[in-house]
Specification:
Elements lengths: L19 H7 L19 E4 L5 E9 L2 E7 L7 H11 L5 E7 L4 E6 L1 H9 L9 E10 L19 E7 L3 H4 L6
Antiparallel strand pairs: 1-2, 2-3, 3-7, 4-5, 5-6, 6-7
Amino acid sequence: MACGGSNGGADSITGFGATTAVWEGLHQVATSNFPDECKSDCVGRYYDPQPGGSPRLDVVSRQAGRLVWLDVMPAPFETREQVLRDIIVLLPRDAKQVDAGVQTECATVQYKSESLAKALRASGLQDTPEFSLNLIDVTLYSGDVLPSGHSPPYTPAVITEAQIHNGHSGSARTNDCGAP
């Protein structure tokens, strides 16, 4: 399945992997209604307020001026199909699904994009044993993390968060549902 966030060139990535300048030109920064866990530095991290005011997107991490971890936070929840339909728009156009897996607490869909790898490498990032710059893991959750540190059981009809970040070969089937 091909995706749709850019035309495939290294400088045309507009979603996951985009430069901060490109991202901010396309998304509305949230100025209030931040999640409770955000205590400081909230402005510039949350984007695209939803009905009710809570932000839809959380830029969790940037490296070398590019978005390298992005959370989608539907309010109150969406189905797996709805969330993935929205996420495909955030991925480079050449991204293709290469794997998928379901664990007790999450599900992971993995995509591969050579244009993403090219753009990240041009920004100075490198592949590591933990992460391949051409692999994208989309990890789906069905509820907030519990005090035990675990997530509620994964339910495809109730997705409350989707994390988008680089992955590694086989991670869709071996994901421990923790932070990458």
